[in-house]
Amino acid sequence: MSKSQGTPAPKSTSKPSQKSKTAQKSKKPSRKPFVIGAVVVAAAVVLGVASYRASDSGSAKKNDASATAAEAPEGTFPELEKLARRDAKDPLAQGRADAPVVMIEYADFKCSYCGKFARDTEPELVKKYVGDGTLRVEWRNMPIFGAQSEAAARAAWAAGQQGRFWQFHAAAYAKGAKEKGFGADRLRELAKEAGVADLDRFVRDADSDAAKASVKKDQDEAYALGASSTPSFVINGRPLAGAQPLDTFAQAIDEAAKYKAAQTAGPKAAGK
What we know:
Blueprint: E1 7-8, H1 18-26, H2 37-46, H3 78-81, E2 93-94, E3 101-107, H4 112-130, E4 135-141, H5 147-160, H6 165-172, H7 184-193, H8 199-206, H9 209-225, E5 229-230, E6 232-235, E7 238-241, H10 246-270
Parallel strand pairs: 3-4
Antiparallel strand pairs: 1-5, 2-4, 3-6, 6-7
Helix pairs in contact: 4-10, 5-6, 5-7, 5-8, 5-9
């Protein structure tokens, strides 16, 4: 992944054992997208899938012949499509719950590349695809830069409890916002800027066990998939790493929508 596209999670500072050093020498690290190899198997287990072969990553899987002969876009993992929650009441999502395409975004409010995506690319995707009912965007908190990342994630969740998550998202990702830090006073200012009505409740919610549990759930999901940088995305089961150009996202969404339409048309055609 290009250095300009995403921010890697900080590496562990723990000293590796002699056994792990030997293993590292004998095996070269992979540079493929974040859902590969054993990580795919682990993700499949997390999702309750009985078996999964990572070798399928380079080829599209066919649907049942009675449904459609169309193939999923290359690099799509059907098991990962199940990560879409499609909860109509989810305050950290936008777009129809039954939209044909769901883009899951794993991001950190202290990540510069996440901010670039939020300012330059996401608004265009929302305008074009969420606006016409094609796309649903589901946010997942993936704080990787320590205490302030964690605090900002919980604050964003708290803003969502009062229906102002996306407004908080915009304020926290505004140009120059992260340079001011995400201390307690600053987070309260951002909540006020986002139009959060009850600031005292906001503070309580941000420090609640529910907020901590929600952030941990999202973070654990990201790491289980093998996401190692922010922002990372899954579009209808197809992983995409980094703040890629607008056209890259548009192509992925278009291909996912086309495949979903073919899936829907298949059974109808078979029933004629």
